[in-house]
Design goal:
The protein is of the alpha+beta class. It folds into three domains: about 70 residues, Uridine Diphospho-n-acetylenolpyruvylglucosamine Reductase, domain 2 (2-Layer Sandwich); about 110 residues, Uridine Diphospho-n-acetylenolpyruvylglucosamine Reductase, domain 3 (2-Layer Sandwich); about 80 residues, Uridine Diphospho-n-acetylenolpyruvylglucosamine Reductase, domain 1. The chain is about 20% helix and about 30% strand. It has six helices and 17 strands. The chain has a five-stranded antiparallel β-sheet with strand order 6-7-12-10-11. A hairpin with a 2-residue loop joins strand 14 and strand 15. The longest helix has 19 residues. The structure holds flavin-adenine dinucleotide. Flavin-adenine dinucleotide binds next to strand 3, helix 3, strand 8, strand 12 and strand 13.
Length: about 300
């Protein structure tokens, strides 16, 4: 068919849920030399009216069909550097945010990103969803990023203002034609949404469920009312549906038994939980994890 896309490739292992899913068309982007391949893949999806999906670390996406009828691009752009005097970090989008945070501390005594130690996924995914933990968000020290417009083939720099960050939101969510290449952060000053003394290393090690998951599934309706509290309130904590379940350690962690779990087990559990919470508490639970579904 064409030289820039592979056909029928297993992509489920990229997602935190580890269910078995095949993608119709697949490509991996490793270096800047691959940008024309990336643009061709995007145009192919438009010409054939197919959904287009970028995968970073896969720790925030749920496939709900065992076959994804679309074009999947796995981002593998990595490497980063830190300018010690200016306190400026520049990183490519598929670097692990956890690894950068840890190395900044160990090698440069820079602990502003301490709370990101233990946060799974890539920098690109974290910027896309403005990931945050214990009061620290990706937007806090964000300076700018470089994106590749897959429609026009033009590279652009976006400032923090352009990125329109808010709770688990960025400009990229509204612009599927933009592929995030790299980002720059300014560590000259500590900035945070709110202060927290939580020991994040202990939390990740001992209080966070282990197994196949994408972390918290729903957004918290407010700081006072958490999604986990609502799931517990309607007696669904540790509830199993097929091979999918809500964790007994943290009720908002949707878990899967890997390849034994059907993607539909996960979606059905999500839908029944939203309904029960809505019926019994009037709260509407909105997913934080991206649900990837074929066109009807
Ligand atoms: C155990 C566990 C704990 C977690 N704890 C937290 C937490 O405390 N706080 C929190 O916010 N999240 C948490 N998460 C969720 C997850 O780690 C974050 O959302 C993470 O930032 C997602 O990054 P990713 O690379 O895995 O994204 P992916 O799942 O690969 O992608 C997420 C979205 O970003 C888009 N995307 C990825 N890369 C690019 C790119 N280069 N250009 C354009 N779009 C792109 C994808 O298309 C997709 O829509 C947790 C997950 C797990 C498994």
């Amino acid at each position: 068919m064409n030289s820039f896309l592979l056909e029928n490739v297993e992509i489920g292992h990229f997602s935190g849920y580890k269910t078995q899913v095949f993608g119709d068309y697949f490509s991996e982007i490793i270096s800047e030399d691959d940008l024309s391949k990336l643009q061709k893949a995007y145009h192919f999806s438009i010409e054939n009216n197919l959904p287009f999906l970028i995968i970073g670390g896969g720790t925030n996406m749920l496939f709900v069909n065992d076959h994804f009828e679309g074009v999947v691009v796995k981002n593998s752009f990595s490497t980063w550097n830190y300018a010690t005097e200016k306190k400026i970090l520049n990183a490519w989008s598929n670097e692990s945010i956890w690894k950068i945070a840890q190395k900044l501390e160990e090698e440069y005594s820079q602990d502003i990103w301490h709370r990101f130690i233990g946060l799974p996924g890539s920098l690109g995914g974290a910027i896309y969803g403005n990931a945050g933990c214990f009061g620290l968000e990706v937007e806090s020290n964000f300076l700018s990023c470089e994106v590749f417009d897959m429609l026009s083939g033009i590279r652009k720099t976006l400032s923090k203002n352009d990125m329109d960050f808010s709770y688990r939101h960025s400009y990229l969510k509204d612009h599927p034609e933009l592929f995030l290449l790299s980002a720059t952060f300014d560590f000259s000053e500590k900035r945070e949404k709110y202060h927290s003394d939580v020991d994040n290393i202990d939390f990740r090690e001992n209080k966070q469920p282990k197994g196949n998951s994408c972390g918290s599934f729903f957004k918290n309706p407010s700081r006072e009312v958490s999604a986990g509290f609502l799931i517990e309130k309607v007696w669904l904590k540790w509830y199993h549906h097929g091979w999918a379940y809500w964790s007994d350690l943290h009720a908002n962690f949707l878990m899967s038994e890997g390849e034994s779990c059907r993607p539909s087990d996960l979606l059905e559990l999500v839908r029944l939980t939203q309904k029960k919470v809505q019926d019994e508490t009037w709260y509407e639970l909105v997913n934080e994890v991206r649900i990837i579904e074929n066109k009807k």
